């Protein structure tokens, strides 16, 4: 092989080597420049931080930027999210609670309360259309009344303490002071947390006892058409459609929702993360406010809004005039012998000779 042939054969290899060497030099220069820039930037940030610590000794923004980043760092405490100091979704939750739920929910509760007060002042309670006969019908047994009052008292305790926790600093603190309001809030938290599980259990017992008589009936649609008595006589069985809406929509659905979310909030030691706690709180507060709004009508009608209604749950029996006026289908079934006017031995003893004849 001649010299020129060897040179021609080695020329491409030489060129490739020179190109590779050139690229390596470019890469090295770029790397050195990048490292130098990063080092300079870090040095400048470090100097800026040192200077900021002198001019603004309490401003530690780089640390708090890392804290608020939502990233997980190293911690000696083991568990879910223990490496995350601040959950970024917490601000979204705070805005929903303060700007939406408490604002609009608070106004809704206030408006419904004022409407009920206004209706009572203008129209007054519902009176019996005829005089009482003195003949009694057992409407609730003692067990049914115990289940009702257990649920009722626990609900009222939860409603009052919940309202104090949500609106106390806006309504009570301005005139009673922050210290007294904080004591009241602390007491409310304890009551709310301990009564909550009792309410959840009472919901189950109440549902089992009352579900049979809250099933749909043919009179329910007619009751709605009559507006519950606003547009003429509204027929009803043992429970009318309004009571059934309260039973299914309020006690059952909303009761389950507030109980489930309340237990999640009440027992955070079951490894819930903060996002689940925030979501549960939003659902819990929204459902609870709706629950309170629905209960206001039920409490009013069952106490001072209707003559004889409180006696039914307090004593267990009602006059036949009351049954005929408000639950005529139930009254007709008793008159026809389909339903007994006495539901327990205790009721029979209490009513004695006043039992309505079939």
What does this structure look like?
The protein has helices at residues 3-55, 61-67, 90-122, 142-171, 173-176, 178-210, 219-225, 241-266, 274-303, 309-315, 320-326, 328-335, 345-351; strands at 136-138, 317-319. By secondary structure, the chain is mostly helical. Strands 1-2 form a two-stranded antiparallel ribbon. α3 (90-122) packs parallel to α9 and α4 packs antiparallel against α6 (178-210). The radius of gyration is 36 Å and the shape is elongated.
Q: What is the helical fraction, as a range of percent?
A: over 70%
The CA-CA distance between the termini, in Å, is 132 Å
Sketch the topology as an H/E string, one letter per element: HHHEHHHHHHHEHHH
Whole-number radius of gyration? 36 Å
How many strands? 2
Hey, roughly how much beta strand do the residues contain? under 5%
User: Which residues form runs of ≥5 with pLDDT under 50?
Assistant: 1-10
Average of per-residue pLDDT values: 85
Summarize, please.
It is built from 13 helices and two strands; from the N terminus they run H-H-H-E-H-H-H-H-H-H-H-E-H-H-H. With 358 residues, it is mostly helical.
Write the layout of secondary structure elements.
Elements (H helix, E strand, L loop, with lengths): L2 H53 L5 H7 L22 H33 L13 E3 L3 H30 L1 H4 L1 H33 L8 H7 L15 H26 L7 H30 L5 H7 L1 E3 H7 L1 H8 L9 H7 L7
Antiparallel strand pairs: 1-2
Helix pairs in contact: 3-9, 4-6, 6-8, 8-9, 11-12
